Amino acid sequence: MTRIKGAVVIQTEQCKGCGLCVEACASNVLTMSVNVNSKGYVYSTSLNPELCIGCASCAVVCPDSCISVYRQSVKEERD
Amino acid sequence: MDVREIICEQNKVYSKSKILTDTTLHYCPGCSHGVVHKLIAEVIEELGIQQRTIGVTPVGCGVFAYNYFDIDMVEAAHGRACAVATGINRLAPERVVFTYQGDGDLSAIGTGETIHACNRGESIVVFYINNAIYGMTGGQMAPTTLCGMKTATTPDGRDPKLHGYPYKITEMLAQLEGVCYVTRQTVASAVYIRKAKRAIRRAFENALAGRGLSFVEIVATCNSGWKMSPVAANKWLVENMLPFYPLGDIKSVGE
Ligand SMILES: Cc1ncc(C[n+]2csc(CCOP(=O)(O)OP(=O)(O)O)c2C)c(N)n1
Ligand code: SF4
Ligand code: SF4
Predict the structure, then answer these.
(1) What is the pTM of this model?
(2) Cα(A9)–Cα(B230) distance, integer angstroms
(3) Were both Cys, which of A72, B6, B17, B190 would link to A57 (CB 3.0–4.6 Å)?
(4) Which residues neighbour B245 within 8 Å (Cβ) at sequence distance 6 or greater?
(5) Which helix (H) or strand (E) holds B39?
(6) What is the CA B36 to chain-centroid distance, rounded?
(7) Residue B219 clears pLDDT 60, i.e. is over it
């Protein structure tokens, strides 16, 4: 079976912790960090990276353009 | 498979526009201004008009926009961006000229300049970022503030008997002959943002074709001024701003 797999790369030092990406992700991939970055903001981070489908909604809503999105079709063996 | 294997250039589907500089935006976390900036940048990049485009920035939170776009930009006096853009466009008609203005800038102090540039049909794009408030100066009432909406200067909510009614300059400008495209969009979710980008692209295409003035209102949040979280502000916008400021194309001619 072919599945779409996605991945996000978050510039955590640029992130201001607004949380809009967490809200935008329907796949529950993202969450806000417990720690803060050097600006003192909590930042967006992948909690469930394997659930990402690469839809880019998180990146589209990010006002600070902190998120890059990657997507690939992968063949998977069903068990 | 490890998701990290997916991360390579050929699989990239979204990343920061090259038209945006590396300067960190000074905007509050979650502010709509950042989203609108990147849509404008993406469209400039996709149309390949970086060298031809000149932006005119406002007074208001958008005042430092010239630090964020890797294009030529001019800072206008408060409300006068449409007049400055007129001058640029007339002297350099081969350039693509846009203004970027808040609701206080465009529809309060700059009302006259805006109306006359629209009426003259200058071949420019006007972006009108309506967050219903004066964000930069501390969240005072703007002409666009909704009835009942609390601001720093209307702590009990805007009362039309005392403060007058909010007005929709976008609908008023659509009456003017020189204006070829008038639309109202928002950036409150990914779906709205994708639609807004299509409208922004169309506006720039009109300027390239010399069709007249394109006016793009973006219904925006000012979560700091509204005293809400960014997520709550987007929700509030959809529930309260959109019934009064309905989305969609208001005028579209000459295609
Ligand atoms: C001539 C003049 N009058 C008043 C001001 C104060 N002032 C600065 S920004 C602003 C309004 C900004 O509101 P808006 O255009 O809605 O932009 P926002 O900050 O909400 O993005 C005002 C009244 C000024 N700088 N210059
Ligand atoms: S790309 Fe889509 S699925 Fe992946 S984290 Fe972003 S919003 Fe979630
Ligand atoms: S004050 Fe309002 S408009 Fe200005 S940057 Fe902050 S959230 Fe944005």
Answers:
(1) 0.97
(2) 22
(3) B190
(4) B130, B168, B170, B184, B217, B219
(5) helix B32-47
(6) 6
(7) yes
Q: How far apart are the C-alpha atoms of A60 and B194, rounded to whole Å?
A: 8
Domain of residue B166, residue span: 27-252
Whether the CB of B61 is below 8 Å from some CB of chain A: the reply is: no
CATH topology of domain A2-75: Alpha-Beta Plaits (3.30.70)
**How near does any CA of chain A get to the CA of B189, in Å?**
7
For A27-62, what is each residue's pLDDT tens digit? 999 999 999 999 999 999 999 999 999 999 999 999
B32 — phi, psi (to 5°)? -60, -25
CB atoms B38 and A65 under 8 Å: yes
Shortest-distance atom of ligand 2 to CA A69: 1
- What confidence category does residue A1 fall into, taking pLDDT thresholds of 50, 70 and 90? confident
* B6 in contact with A, Cβ within 8 Å: yes
| Cβ contact B7–A56 (<8 Å) | no
Pairing of strands B248-252, B179-186: antiparallel
Helix (H, G, I), strand (E, B) or coil at A78: coil
Segments making up each domain of chain A, as ranges: 2-75
ipTM of predicted complex: 0.95
The CB of B76 under 6 Å from ligand 1? The reply is no
What mean pLDDT do residues B66-80 have?
98
CATH number of B179's domain:
3.40.50.970
Ligand 1 atom 10, closest CA: B60
